[in-house]
Amino acid sequence: MHNRIIDKPVAELYRRIHVEKLDGVVQIQDAHFTKTLYFRRGRLEFARTTVIQERLGEILYKLGKINQTQFWSLHKMMEGRRDQLGQVLIQARILDAQTLALALAHQAAAIAVGALSISSGTWEFSPDLPEVPEDSRLGIPIPRIIAMGIPRMFNLAYFRNRYYDQTAQQLPLEPEVESSLDSETRMLYQRLPKLSGIACGTLHSHMKTTEDAIWAQLTHLYLINGLEFAEIRHADQEIDHNIENMLALFNRISKGTASHYDILGVKDTAEEDEVKRAYFQLAKQLHPDRLSSAPDPGVREKANFVFAAVNKAFDTLNDPQRRRAYDTGETDEDEPKSRTHGNLKERARVLYQKAKTLYSQHRFWEAATLMDEAVNLDNDKSAYFLLLGMAQVHIASLRRSGELNLKRAVELDPWNADAFAGLGILFQEEQLVNRAEGFFRKALSISPDHKIARKRLEDLTGGSKAKRSLFGKKK
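Above: the chain's sequence. Below: its structure in C-alpha coordinate form.
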Protein backbone atom coordinates (compact mmCIF):
# COMPACT_ATOMS: atom_id res chain seq x y z
CA MET A 1 0.00 0.00 0.00
CA HIS A 2 1.41 3.36 -1.06
CA ASN A 3 1.17 6.19 1.48
CA ARG A 4 1.58 9.83 0.53
CA ILE A 5 4.33 11.46 2.55
CA ILE A 6 2.43 14.73 2.81
CA ASP A 7 -0.34 12.85 4.66
CA LYS A 8 1.82 10.49 6.72
CA PRO A 9 5.53 11.34 6.93
CA VAL A 10 8.27 8.74 6.87
CA ALA A 11 9.10 9.68 10.46
CA GLU A 12 5.83 8.12 11.66
CA LEU A 13 6.79 4.86 9.96
CA TYR A 14 10.25 4.92 11.56
CA ARG A 15 8.60 5.27 14.96
CA ARG A 16 6.38 2.27 14.37
CA ILE A 17 9.30 0.14 13.18
CA HIS A 18 11.29 1.19 16.25
CA VAL A 19 8.50 0.64 18.79
CA GLU A 20 7.28 -2.67 17.37
CA LYS A 21 10.80 -3.91 16.47
CA LEU A 22 9.60 -4.76 12.95
CA ASP A 23 11.25 -6.61 10.10
CA GLY A 24 10.58 -5.23 6.67
CA VAL A 25 11.53 -3.29 3.57
CA VAL A 26 10.61 0.37 3.07
CA GLN A 27 10.56 1.86 -0.41
CA ILE A 28 10.37 5.65 -0.71
CA GLN A 29 10.01 7.26 -4.11
CA ASP A 30 8.85 10.12 -6.23
CA ALA A 31 9.51 11.17 -9.82
CA HIS A 32 13.19 11.87 -9.13
CA PHE A 33 14.49 9.17 -6.77
CA THR A 34 13.98 5.80 -5.11
CA LYS A 35 15.25 4.82 -1.67
CA THR A 36 15.05 1.27 -0.29
CA LEU A 37 15.71 0.60 3.38
CA TYR A 38 15.97 -2.83 5.02
CA PHE A 39 15.04 -3.25 8.69
CA ARG A 40 15.48 -6.21 11.03
CA ARG A 41 14.14 -6.20 14.57
CA GLY A 42 13.63 -2.47 14.40
CA ARG A 43 17.16 -1.60 13.26
CA LEU A 44 18.38 -0.39 9.90
CA GLU A 45 20.43 -3.15 8.29
CA PHE A 46 21.08 -1.86 4.80
CA ALA A 47 19.93 0.82 2.34
CA ARG A 48 20.03 1.59 -1.38
CA THR A 49 19.43 4.87 -3.20
CA THR A 50 19.29 6.52 -6.61
CA VAL A 51 20.06 9.95 -5.11
CA ILE A 52 23.47 10.86 -6.50
CA GLN A 53 24.61 12.65 -3.34
CA GLU A 54 23.92 9.48 -1.34
CA ARG A 55 25.82 7.05 -3.58
CA LEU A 56 28.78 5.24 -2.04
CA GLY A 57 31.35 7.05 -4.17
CA GLU A 58 30.03 10.44 -3.06
CA ILE A 59 30.03 9.33 0.58
CA LEU A 60 33.62 8.05 0.37
CA TYR A 61 34.76 11.32 -1.17
CA LYS A 62 32.96 13.42 1.46
CA LEU A 63 34.51 11.31 4.22
CA GLY A 64 37.96 11.80 2.72
CA LYS A 65 38.44 8.06 2.09
CA ILE A 66 39.19 8.62 -1.60
CA ASN A 67 40.75 11.64 -3.26
CA GLN A 68 39.38 13.68 -6.15
CA THR A 69 41.35 11.78 -8.78
CA GLN A 70 40.07 8.44 -7.49
CA PHE A 71 36.55 9.82 -7.30
CA TRP A 72 36.52 10.88 -10.94
CA SER A 73 37.97 7.52 -12.02
CA LEU A 74 35.25 5.42 -10.32
CA HIS A 75 33.13 5.17 -13.45
CA LYS A 76 36.04 3.87 -15.48
CA MET A 77 36.94 1.38 -12.76
CA MET A 78 33.43 -0.10 -12.85
CA GLU A 79 33.31 -0.60 -16.63
CA GLY A 80 32.62 -4.23 -17.45
CA ARG A 81 32.47 -5.19 -13.76
CA ARG A 82 29.47 -6.74 -11.99
CA ASP A 83 30.96 -6.47 -8.54
CA GLN A 84 29.77 -3.86 -6.08
CA LEU A 85 31.80 -0.65 -5.94
CA GLY A 86 33.09 -1.44 -2.47
CA GLN A 87 34.50 -4.79 -3.55
CA VAL A 88 36.15 -3.22 -6.58
CA LEU A 89 37.84 -0.62 -4.36
CA ILE A 90 39.05 -3.32 -1.97
CA GLN A 91 40.46 -5.34 -4.85
CA ALA A 92 42.23 -2.22 -6.10
CA ARG A 93 43.60 -1.76 -2.55
CA ILE A 94 42.10 1.70 -2.32
CA LEU A 95 40.03 0.66 0.69
CA ASP A 96 40.23 -2.03 3.34
CA ALA A 97 37.25 -4.00 4.62
CA GLN A 98 36.93 -2.00 7.84
CA THR A 99 36.90 1.34 6.05
CA LEU A 100 34.30 0.03 3.61
CA ALA A 101 32.08 -1.16 6.47
CA LEU A 102 32.23 2.27 8.12
CA ALA A 103 31.44 3.99 4.83
CA LEU A 104 28.45 1.70 4.19
CA ALA A 105 27.09 2.44 7.66
CA HIS A 106 27.52 6.16 7.04
CA GLN A 107 25.80 5.82 3.66
CA ALA A 108 22.83 3.86 5.05
CA ALA A 109 22.35 6.41 7.82
CA ALA A 110 22.55 9.27 5.31
CA ILE A 111 19.89 7.63 3.14
CA ALA A 112 17.56 7.09 6.10
CA VAL A 113 18.16 10.57 7.53
CA GLY A 114 17.57 12.18 4.14
CA ALA A 115 14.13 10.58 3.97
CA LEU A 116 13.03 12.53 7.06
CA SER A 117 13.23 15.85 5.21
CA ILE A 118 11.21 14.66 2.19
CA SER A 119 7.79 16.32 1.90
CA SER A 120 6.53 14.77 -1.34
CA GLY A 121 6.33 11.34 -2.93
CA THR A 122 5.16 8.06 -1.43
CA TRP A 123 6.38 5.26 0.83
CA GLU A 124 5.46 1.60 1.04
CA PHE A 125 6.28 -0.88 3.80
CA SER A 126 6.50 -4.62 3.15
CA PRO A 127 6.55 -6.63 6.40
CA ASP A 128 8.88 -9.29 5.06
CA LEU A 129 12.17 -10.43 6.53
CA PRO A 130 14.76 -8.59 4.41
CA GLU A 131 17.39 -10.65 2.63
CA VAL A 132 20.59 -9.00 3.76
CA PRO A 133 23.90 -10.92 3.83
CA GLU A 134 25.18 -11.61 7.33
CA ASP A 135 28.36 -9.59 6.77
CA SER A 136 26.38 -6.60 5.47
CA ARG A 137 24.04 -6.11 8.42
CA LEU A 138 24.68 -2.71 9.95
CA GLY A 139 22.23 -2.73 12.88
CA ILE A 140 21.81 1.07 13.08
CA PRO A 141 19.30 2.00 15.83
CA ILE A 142 16.47 4.27 14.75
CA PRO A 143 16.99 6.74 17.66
CA ARG A 144 20.39 7.56 16.15
CA ILE A 145 18.75 8.23 12.77
CA ILE A 146 16.10 10.44 14.39
CA ALA A 147 18.72 12.45 16.31
CA MET A 148 20.61 13.10 13.08
CA GLY A 149 17.45 13.93 11.14
CA ILE A 150 15.55 16.26 13.48
CA PRO A 151 17.60 19.36 12.50
CA ARG A 152 16.69 18.64 8.86
CA MET A 153 12.95 18.30 9.48
CA PHE A 154 12.17 21.88 8.55
CA ASN A 155 8.42 21.40 8.41
CA LEU A 156 7.04 20.10 11.70
CA ALA A 157 3.51 21.28 10.89
CA TYR A 158 2.21 17.70 10.67
CA PHE A 159 3.02 17.05 14.33
CA ARG A 160 2.06 20.55 15.52
CA ASN A 161 -1.37 20.43 13.88
CA ARG A 162 -2.02 16.86 14.97
CA TYR A 163 -1.03 17.18 18.62
CA TYR A 164 -1.38 20.90 19.40
CA ASP A 165 -4.28 20.48 21.84
CA GLN A 166 -2.97 17.27 23.41
CA THR A 167 -0.59 16.76 26.32
CA ALA A 168 2.73 14.87 26.31
CA GLN A 169 3.13 11.91 28.66
CA GLN A 170 6.62 10.60 29.42
CA LEU A 171 7.56 7.04 28.45
CA PRO A 172 10.66 5.25 29.77
CA LEU A 173 13.83 5.53 27.69
CA GLU A 174 16.89 3.35 27.89
CA PRO A 175 19.67 5.22 29.75
CA GLU A 176 21.99 5.28 26.73
CA VAL A 177 19.23 6.77 24.56
CA GLU A 178 18.39 9.44 27.13
CA SER A 179 22.05 10.35 27.60
CA SER A 180 22.45 10.82 23.84
CA LEU A 181 19.82 13.59 23.74
CA ASP A 182 20.95 17.19 23.48
CA SER A 183 20.68 19.16 26.71
CA GLU A 184 17.46 21.04 25.84
CA THR A 185 15.61 17.91 24.72
CA ARG A 186 16.82 15.97 27.76
CA MET A 187 15.65 18.79 30.05
CA LEU A 188 12.19 18.72 28.43
CA TYR A 189 12.05 14.92 28.77
CA GLN A 190 12.90 15.08 32.46
CA ARG A 191 10.27 17.78 33.10
CA LEU A 192 7.44 16.03 31.25
CA PRO A 193 5.89 14.47 34.39
CA LYS A 194 5.44 17.97 35.85
CA LEU A 195 4.00 19.28 32.59
CA SER A 196 1.30 16.62 32.34
CA GLY A 197 -2.09 18.07 31.49
CA ILE A 198 -0.65 21.14 29.76
CA ALA A 199 -1.43 21.52 26.05
CA CYS A 200 1.64 21.00 23.87
CA GLY A 201 0.80 24.20 22.02
CA THR A 202 1.59 26.22 25.16
CA LEU A 203 4.67 24.32 26.38
CA HIS A 204 7.11 26.79 24.84
CA SER A 205 5.97 29.45 27.32
CA HIS A 206 6.57 27.06 30.24
CA MET A 207 10.01 26.09 28.94
CA LYS A 208 10.87 29.69 28.03
CA THR A 209 11.85 28.83 24.46
CA THR A 210 10.45 29.28 20.97
CA GLU A 211 7.48 27.35 19.58
CA ASP A 212 9.63 25.90 16.77
CA ALA A 213 12.23 24.68 19.25
CA ILE A 214 9.69 22.98 21.51
CA TRP A 215 8.04 21.18 18.60
CA ALA A 216 11.40 19.93 17.38
CA GLN A 217 12.08 18.54 20.87
CA LEU A 218 8.59 17.06 21.27
CA THR A 219 8.80 15.44 17.84
CA HIS A 220 12.24 14.02 18.62
CA LEU A 221 11.03 12.44 21.86
CA TYR A 222 7.84 11.15 20.26
CA LEU A 223 9.68 9.47 17.37
CA ILE A 224 12.06 7.61 19.71
CA ASN A 225 9.13 6.60 21.94
CA GLY A 226 10.13 8.87 24.80
CA LEU A 227 6.62 10.26 25.00
CA GLU A 228 3.11 9.71 23.76
CA PHE A 229 0.44 12.30 23.08
CA ALA A 230 -2.88 12.07 24.91
CA GLU A 231 -6.11 14.00 25.21
CA ILE A 232 -6.11 16.44 28.10
CA ARG A 233 -8.33 15.07 30.86
CA HIS A 234 -8.94 18.45 32.44
CA ALA A 235 -9.52 20.44 29.27
CA ASP A 236 -12.36 22.29 30.98
CA GLN A 237 -9.82 23.91 33.31
CA GLU A 238 -7.94 25.34 30.35
CA ILE A 239 -11.19 26.59 28.81
CA ASP A 240 -12.13 28.22 32.12
CA HIS A 241 -8.72 29.90 32.23
CA ASN A 242 -9.15 31.18 28.67
CA ILE A 243 -12.64 32.48 29.46
CA GLU A 244 -11.26 34.27 32.51
CA ASN A 245 -8.55 35.94 30.42
CA MET A 246 -11.06 36.82 27.70
CA LEU A 247 -13.46 38.47 30.18
CA ALA A 248 -10.64 40.48 31.76
CA LEU A 249 -9.59 41.70 28.32
CA PHE A 250 -13.22 42.43 27.43
CA ASN A 251 -13.56 44.71 30.45
CA ARG A 252 -10.37 46.60 29.63
CA ILE A 253 -11.34 47.05 25.99
CA SER A 254 -14.87 48.13 26.91
CA LYS A 255 -13.51 50.78 29.29
CA GLY A 256 -11.12 52.05 26.62
CA THR A 257 -8.05 51.41 28.76
CA ALA A 258 -6.38 48.88 26.44
CA SER A 259 -4.15 49.99 23.57
CA HIS A 260 -3.46 47.74 20.59
CA TYR A 261 -0.19 46.77 22.27
CA ASP A 262 -2.02 45.94 25.51
CA ILE A 263 -4.55 43.80 23.67
CA LEU A 264 -1.83 41.69 22.03
CA GLY A 265 0.29 41.68 25.18
CA VAL A 266 3.41 43.12 23.54
CA LYS A 267 5.57 46.18 24.16
CA ASP A 268 5.43 49.16 21.82
CA THR A 269 8.97 48.22 20.71
CA ALA A 270 7.93 44.70 19.61
CA GLU A 271 9.30 43.50 16.28
CA GLU A 272 7.03 42.26 13.49
CA ASP A 273 7.65 38.56 14.24
CA GLU A 274 6.83 39.08 17.92
CA VAL A 275 3.56 40.78 17.00
CA LYS A 276 2.61 37.88 14.74
CA ARG A 277 3.45 35.25 17.36
CA ALA A 278 1.45 37.06 20.00
CA TYR A 279 -1.52 37.44 17.67
CA PHE A 280 -1.71 33.79 16.60
CA GLN A 281 -1.24 32.56 20.15
CA LEU A 282 -3.97 34.86 21.45
CA ALA A 283 -6.28 33.96 18.58
CA LYS A 284 -5.94 30.26 19.41
CA GLN A 285 -6.78 30.83 23.07
CA LEU A 286 -9.66 33.25 22.58
CA HIS A 287 -11.26 32.01 19.38
CA PRO A 288 -15.06 32.07 19.96
CA ASP A 289 -15.40 28.46 18.78
CA ARG A 290 -13.04 27.30 21.54
CA LEU A 291 -15.13 29.03 24.20
CA SER A 292 -18.54 27.93 22.91
CA SER A 293 -18.96 25.31 25.66
CA ALA A 294 -19.17 27.96 28.38
CA PRO A 295 -22.44 27.76 30.34
CA ASP A 296 -23.01 31.53 30.09
CA PRO A 297 -24.54 32.27 26.64
CA GLY A 298 -23.15 35.79 26.82
CA VAL A 299 -19.56 34.50 26.74
CA ARG A 300 -19.58 33.84 23.01
CA GLU A 301 -20.90 37.33 22.26
CA LYS A 302 -18.14 38.85 24.38
CA ALA A 303 -15.59 36.52 22.78
CA ASN A 304 -16.64 37.76 19.33
CA PHE A 305 -16.14 41.34 20.53
CA VAL A 306 -12.68 40.56 21.94
CA PHE A 307 -11.70 38.54 18.89
CA ALA A 308 -12.62 41.46 16.62
CA ALA A 309 -10.50 43.77 18.78
CA VAL A 310 -7.57 41.34 18.60
CA ASN A 311 -7.84 41.24 14.81
CA LYS A 312 -8.05 45.03 14.62
CA ALA A 313 -4.98 45.42 16.82
CA PHE A 314 -3.04 42.98 14.66
CA ASP A 315 -4.16 44.63 11.41
CA THR A 316 -2.82 47.94 12.67
CA LEU A 317 0.44 46.82 14.26
CA ASN A 318 1.31 44.42 11.44
CA ASP A 319 1.16 47.19 8.84
CA PRO A 320 4.22 49.51 9.19
CA GLN A 321 2.40 52.54 7.77
CA ARG A 322 -0.71 52.09 9.90
CA ARG A 323 1.43 51.38 12.96
CA ARG A 324 3.37 54.63 12.52
CA ALA A 325 0.12 56.55 12.16
CA TYR A 326 -1.30 54.85 15.26
CA ASP A 327 1.85 55.55 17.30
CA THR A 328 1.87 59.24 16.35
CA GLY A 329 -1.89 59.70 16.72
CA GLU A 330 -2.20 60.92 13.14
CA THR A 331 -5.32 58.85 12.40
CA ASP A 332 -8.57 58.05 14.11
CA GLU A 333 -9.20 54.38 13.50
CA ASP A 334 -12.82 54.71 14.47
CA GLU A 335 -13.56 56.98 11.51
CA PRO A 336 -15.97 55.10 9.24
CA LYS A 337 -14.24 56.40 6.11
CA SER A 338 -11.41 53.91 6.69
CA ARG A 339 -13.86 51.00 6.89
CA THR A 340 -15.85 51.41 3.68
CA HIS A 341 -17.60 48.49 2.07
CA GLY A 342 -14.98 48.34 -0.66
CA ASN A 343 -12.15 48.28 1.86
CA LEU A 344 -13.78 45.42 3.76
CA LYS A 345 -14.09 43.34 0.59
CA GLU A 346 -10.49 44.03 -0.36
CA ARG A 347 -9.28 43.20 3.14
CA ALA A 348 -11.16 39.88 2.97
CA ARG A 349 -9.58 39.11 -0.40
CA VAL A 350 -6.08 39.77 0.95
CA LEU A 351 -6.74 37.56 3.97
CA TYR A 352 -7.98 34.80 1.66
CA GLN A 353 -4.78 34.89 -0.39
CA LYS A 354 -2.61 34.77 2.74
CA ALA A 355 -4.67 31.95 4.20
CA LYS A 356 -4.30 29.89 1.02
CA THR A 357 -0.54 30.12 1.38
CA LEU A 358 -0.68 29.15 5.05
CA TYR A 359 -2.97 26.21 4.24
CA SER A 360 -0.57 24.92 1.59
CA GLN A 361 2.15 25.01 4.28
CA HIS A 362 -0.07 22.94 6.63
CA ARG A 363 -0.32 25.87 9.04
CA PHE A 364 -4.01 25.23 9.60
CA TRP A 365 -4.49 27.22 12.81
CA GLU A 366 -3.13 30.38 11.20
CA ALA A 367 -5.18 29.82 8.02
CA ALA A 368 -8.37 29.27 10.01
CA THR A 369 -7.73 32.39 12.09
CA LEU A 370 -7.32 34.60 9.01
CA MET A 371 -10.33 33.09 7.23
CA ASP A 372 -12.51 33.53 10.30
CA GLU A 373 -11.91 37.25 9.98
CA ALA A 374 -12.33 37.14 6.19
CA VAL A 375 -15.84 35.66 6.34
CA ASN A 376 -16.82 38.28 8.91
CA LEU A 377 -15.75 40.97 6.45
CA ASP A 378 -17.27 39.36 3.36
CA ASN A 379 -19.81 36.63 4.06
CA ASP A 380 -21.11 35.88 0.58
CA LYS A 381 -18.11 34.09 -0.96
CA SER A 382 -18.38 30.32 -1.18
CA ALA A 383 -14.59 30.02 -1.63
CA TYR A 384 -13.98 31.80 1.68
CA PHE A 385 -16.19 29.43 3.67
CA LEU A 386 -14.65 26.48 1.81
CA LEU A 387 -11.10 27.41 2.82
CA LEU A 388 -12.17 28.18 6.39
CA GLY A 389 -13.96 24.85 6.65
CA MET A 390 -11.07 22.87 5.18
CA ALA A 391 -8.59 24.46 7.59
CA GLN A 392 -10.87 23.56 10.49
CA VAL A 393 -11.19 19.97 9.25
CA HIS A 394 -7.52 19.50 10.18
CA ILE A 395 -8.08 20.79 13.74
CA ALA A 396 -9.96 18.18 15.75
CA SER A 397 -11.48 20.68 18.20
CA LEU A 398 -12.89 22.81 15.35
CA ARG A 399 -14.30 20.11 13.08
CA ARG A 400 -17.88 20.88 14.07
CA SER A 401 -17.34 24.48 12.96
CA GLY A 402 -15.65 23.12 9.83
CA GLU A 403 -18.76 21.16 8.95
CA LEU A 404 -20.97 24.23 9.34
CA ASN A 405 -18.69 26.37 7.20
CA LEU A 406 -18.45 23.77 4.44
CA LYS A 407 -22.24 23.50 4.40
CA ARG A 408 -22.39 27.29 4.17
CA ALA A 409 -20.07 27.07 1.14
CA VAL A 410 -22.55 24.64 -0.44
CA GLU A 411 -25.49 26.97 0.32
CA LEU A 412 -23.72 29.86 -1.42
CA ASP A 413 -22.73 27.74 -4.40
CA PRO A 414 -24.71 24.48 -4.75
CA TRP A 415 -22.60 23.53 -7.78
CA ASN A 416 -19.30 23.80 -5.94
CA ALA A 417 -17.89 20.27 -6.18
CA ASP A 418 -14.95 21.23 -3.96
CA ALA A 419 -17.27 21.99 -1.04
CA PHE A 420 -18.94 18.58 -1.29
CA ALA A 421 -15.52 16.94 -1.53
CA GLY A 422 -14.47 18.88 1.57
CA LEU A 423 -17.45 17.54 3.50
CA GLY A 424 -16.51 14.06 2.33
CA ILE A 425 -12.99 14.51 3.67
CA LEU A 426 -14.35 15.76 7.00
CA PHE A 427 -16.59 12.73 7.50
CA GLN A 428 -13.83 10.40 6.29
CA GLU A 429 -11.56 11.86 8.99
CA GLU A 430 -14.36 11.22 11.51
CA GLN A 431 -14.63 7.59 10.30
CA LEU A 432 -18.22 8.15 9.10
CA VAL A 433 -17.72 6.19 5.90
CA ASN A 434 -21.26 6.18 4.51
CA ARG A 435 -21.66 9.94 4.85
CA ALA A 436 -18.22 10.54 3.37
CA GLU A 437 -19.00 8.31 0.41
CA GLY A 438 -22.27 10.17 -0.22
CA PHE A 439 -20.54 13.54 -0.40
CA PHE A 440 -17.78 12.24 -2.68
CA ARG A 441 -20.42 10.85 -5.04
CA LYS A 442 -22.25 14.18 -4.97
CA ALA A 443 -19.02 15.98 -5.89
CA LEU A 444 -18.51 13.57 -8.80
CA SER A 445 -22.07 14.05 -9.99
CA ILE A 446 -21.30 17.75 -10.34
CA SER A 447 -17.77 17.31 -11.70
CA PRO A 448 -17.08 13.78 -13.02
CA ASP A 449 -13.38 14.63 -13.43
CA HIS A 450 -12.92 15.77 -9.81
CA LYS A 451 -9.64 13.99 -8.99
CA ILE A 452 -9.80 14.41 -5.22
CA ALA A 453 -13.33 13.08 -4.86
CA ARG A 454 -12.60 10.17 -7.18
CA LYS A 455 -9.40 9.22 -5.36
CA ARG A 456 -11.01 9.49 -1.93
CA LEU A 457 -13.97 7.40 -3.10
CA GLU A 458 -11.54 4.75 -4.34
CA ASP A 459 -9.93 4.80 -0.89
CA LEU A 460 -13.27 4.10 0.74
CA THR A 461 -14.23 1.35 -1.67
CA GLY A 462 -11.02 -0.62 -1.46
CA GLY A 463 -8.51 1.39 -3.51
CA SER A 464 -5.39 3.23 -2.34
CA LYS A 465 -5.50 4.98 1.04
CA ALA A 466 -3.64 8.00 -0.29
CA LYS A 467 -5.10 11.38 0.67
CA ARG A 468 -5.05 14.66 -1.17
CA SER A 469 -5.54 18.27 -0.18
CA LEU A 470 -7.97 20.65 -1.85
CA PHE A 471 -5.57 23.54 -1.45
CA GLY A 472 -2.24 21.64 -1.47
CA LYS A 473 0.38 21.94 -4.15
CA LYS A 474 -0.31 19.88 -7.22
CA LYS A 475 1.78 16.78 -7.69
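The two ends are 19 Å apart (CA to CA).
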